[in-house]
Structures are given as structure tokens and as C-alpha cells.
């Protein structure tokens, strides 16, 4: 069998396999086209992104920690890792290969393969392509079975968390111009915070929402707000219209007694111009090289506080190599000591420490820093962290160093 046909054979098999049977189909297909392969496992990342859970049919499979393991290194680095399998003599009998499973830039888990070949480097291109095929197949199958959703939760979610996780677009995505990742904690008992994104041919839309209240009531409020924002966005509305229409829907339901603090942003992929509506409390930090620049936008009314609220669009520009870190109020104002809150200073410090990390790791690092400040205590409020790395080559060398200086406002239709 030629090398070109191996991934194609796996892909063909997955297309003809029921959604709940992908792991078994992958194992059978790989063993059929790669005779040296003796074992195949797919591992999915849990909600906390702390462990990888095997999809091996066991009722309670033993999770594999991401930190300090072969599979974990492949997941974090998004690169294959190899570990020789000890033999009876001096030479290894085979090799364990772990390949990241991704879908359009989102890390889902790891494909772990054991082969009798102690030097399987020639198999890596095939396995990397197969892992991408698995990632895409999993994303399609996810809505047709509970197997994969059930596997990645280590304990039962609260109903509020169940609602919120169904709203989230994923943990990350990537394109030629950007890499994007987000994380939400506490993962198993979240209430009203949310992030969302959508990519189009010429722009990227981001939202970060901090819903008022706790528990199921907060989750229902945020669900209404996010659904209204998506409805407006999919109808072609700009960010000011999205905020206005979503605010009207929330006010119509709650009459101002409940509201959501929301940041809505649209990034033009051609030139990095960001159009934003800051309707509440999410905070933006821009990292340009080693310089930290808090993006100060005009705080406008939260969505749903008043009827017929008009919103203004403000603009700033990001350049190639810039990193945006966006956090919700639950993280920014979390008390870290009797004398203060997490705030700008701590956010800038952790941003500096993580500037060499991949965008996918930054939200986790920011929230881990907060947990360390809290001494390991549980979060009193939901916390969202989102990271956007901008890779689009600069097309305008005259863009100002301080993006806040380029802010412009325009009235949105009422």
C-alpha cells in the first residue's frame, strides 16, 4: 500500500462508521494499513485541560496527566513525540508515538500508537495526517453521540455548566492571520460568563460576556444574550447593531432587572483594524513586543439594562506579532489578598511570563496564575481568559505604536 493511500483509507473508513464507533474504526484501519502497529488509543482532553482521557471502552478509564507525560507533551506542543519501548536486550523492541489530534487549530486530544518499529520516523507524516482526519471526524460526530462529551468530563457538570459549555465554540481556532484560544473556569460549575467567536472570509468576530447572577438563572440569561448576539451577527449586523439588538432582547425578557456586561469585537483580517463595543466589564490588554498596553475603551451600558440603547463603535489597530489578552470581570476583579484584586498589574505580569507560549496555553496560564494568587481556593465567580495572537503581516508602516490613539466612534443605528 502506498503512503498516499494510508490516510485516505482511514478517512474512508471513518466516513462509513457510526458516530459512536470512531475510536474502534481508527484502530482497525491503522492496524490494517500499518502492520507494525500493535496498539492504538485516542485520548480526549478534559474540561480543565489537565488530563487526557482514553476512549478505550472502559467505564472508568485511567486519565493521563498532561503535565510531564509523553501524550501531554504532544498535546501542548502540537508536535509528535516518540518514546522507545524497552526490549529484553539493549535495543528497544518498538516505539510509542503520540500525535496531537486537532481540528482547525483546536486541540482535542492525542492519537497514541505503539509500533514494533523502534525508529518509526517514516510513519510520522501518515500519523499526523490521520490525526487531523480524526479531529475533523470527531467534530462532525460530536453532535450525534454523547460518547465523546461524556468521556471528557471527570465528574458531573451542574446544569448551569451544561448549558454554558453547549454555548462555547470550542477551546480554540486558527487561521493564516491569527491563533485564538479561550478558557472558562470553574469548568464544572460555571454560571454566567461566556466567550464566542466566528470566522469569515474577511473578518473575525469575538465576544466575551459576563452575565449577572449565579447558577441556572445566570446561565439562562447568558444563553439568551449569546443567542441574540449570534442571531444579529448572522443577519449581517455590525458590532454596534449586534449589541443593540441583543440588549433589546434581554431587556424585553428581564425589564432591566438582569443584564449582561459584554465586549463585542470585529477584527478586519486584511489590516488588523478592530471595531469594538465595550458594553460592560471585560478588559483588554495588548502585548506588543515587551510593551504592555491596556486598551481603554469607553464603557457603555450593559446589554439589557435599558431599552433602545444605542451603542458606539470604537476602533484601534493591531500589528503583526501583537497579542491581545481579554479577561472577564470574574478574573480581573478577583480578590487575591486582603489588600487588593488581580487587576492590571498581575495581568501584565503573567502576560510577560507567558509571551513565549503558544496562544493555546495563555488562557490556562492566566487562570492558573489567578488560582495561585488565591492559594488554591475555588473561584468565587466565573473567570474567562481569551488570547488572540495576530500574525497578519503589516501593510501600513505608519500605524501608531499606541493603538488607543486610533480610537474612533460612530453612532450605531437605534
TrEMBL record:
Region named Disordered: 394-414
**Superkingdom in the source lineage:** Bacteria
In alphabetical order, the GO MF annotations are:
phosphatase activity
Name of this chain's protein: SpoIIE family protein phosphatase
Keywords recorded for this protein, A-Z: Hydrolase
Q: Which sequence ranges are marked TM in the entry?
A: none
Q: Which SUPFAM superfamilies match?
A: GAF domain-like, PP2C-like
Highest classification ranks of the organism: Bacteria, Bacillati, Actinomycetota, Actinomycetes, Streptosporangiales
Q: Where is the PPM-type phosphatase domain?
A: 175-390
Amino acid at each position: 500500500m502506498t503512503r498516499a493511500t494510508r490516510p485516505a483509507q482511514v478517512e474512508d473508513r471513518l466516513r462509513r462508521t457510526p458516530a459512536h464507533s470512531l475510536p474502534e474504526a481508527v484502530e482497525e484501519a491503522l492496524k490494517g494499513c500499518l502492520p507494525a502497529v500493535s496498539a492504538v488509543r485516542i485520548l480526549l482532553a478534559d474540561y480543565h485541560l489537565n488530563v487526557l482521557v482514553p476512549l478505550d471502552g472502559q467505564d472508568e478509564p485511567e486519565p493521563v496527566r498532561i503535565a510531564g507525560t509523553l501524550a501531554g507533551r504532544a498535546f501542548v506542543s502540537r508536535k509528535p513525540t516518540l518514546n522507545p519501548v524497552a526490549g529484553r536486550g539493549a535495543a528497544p523492541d518498538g516505539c510509542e508515538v503520540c500525535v496531537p489530534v486537532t481540528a482547525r487549530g483546536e486541540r482535542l486530544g492525542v492519537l497514541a500508537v505503539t509500533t514494533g518499529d523502534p525508529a518509526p520516523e517514516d510513519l510520522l507524516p501518515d500519523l499526523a495526517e490521520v490525526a487531523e482526519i480524526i479531529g475533523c471526524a470527531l467534530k462532525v460526530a460530536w453532535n450525534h453521540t454523547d460518547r465523546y462529551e461524556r468521556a471528557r468530563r471527570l465528574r458531573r457538570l451542574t446544569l448551569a455548566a451544561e448549558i454554558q459549555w453547549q454555548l462555547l465554540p470550542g477551546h480554540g481556532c486558527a487561521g493564516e492571520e491569527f491563533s485564538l484560544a479561550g478558557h472558562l473556569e470553574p469548568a464544572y460549575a460555571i454560571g454566567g460568563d461566556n466567550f464566542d467567536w466566528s470566522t469569515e472570509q474577511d473578518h473575525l468576530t469575538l465576544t466575551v460576556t459576563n452575565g449577572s447572577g449565579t447558577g441556572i438563572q445566570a446561565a439562562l440569561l447568558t444563553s439568551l444574550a449569546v443567542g441574540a448576539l449570534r442571531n444579529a451577527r448572522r443577519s449581517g449586523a455590525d458590532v454596534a447593531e449586534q449589541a443593540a439588538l441583543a440588549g433589546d432582547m434581554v431587556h424585553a425578557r428581564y425589564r432591566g432587572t438582569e443584564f449582561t456586561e459584554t465586549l463585542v469585537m470585529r477584527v478586519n483580517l486584511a489590516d488588523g483594524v478592530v471595531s469594538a463595543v465595550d458594553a460592560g466589564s471585560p478588559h483588554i490588554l495588548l502585548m506588543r513586543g515587551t510593551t504592555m498596553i491596556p486598551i481603554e475603551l469607553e464603557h457603555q451600558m450593559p446589554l439589557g439594562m435599558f431599552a433602545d440603547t444605542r451603542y458606539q463603535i470604537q476602533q484601534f489597530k493591531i500589528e503583526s506579532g501583537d497579542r491581545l489578552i481579554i479577561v472577564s470581570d470574574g478574573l480581573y476583579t478577583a480578590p487575591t489578598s486582603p489588600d487588593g484584586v488581580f487587576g492590571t498589574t498581575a495581568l501584565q505580569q503573567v502576560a510577560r511570563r507567558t509571551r513565549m507560549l503558544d496562544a493555546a496555553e495563555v488562557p490556562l496560564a492566566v487562570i492558573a496564575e489567578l488560582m495561585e494568587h488565591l492559594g488554591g481556593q475555588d473561584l468565587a465567580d466565573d473567570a474567562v481568559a481569551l488570547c488572540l495572537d495576530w500574525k497578519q503581516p503589516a501593510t501600513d508602516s505608519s500605524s501608531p505604536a499606541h493603538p488607543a490613539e486610533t480610537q474612533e466612534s460612530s453612532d450605531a443605528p437605534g
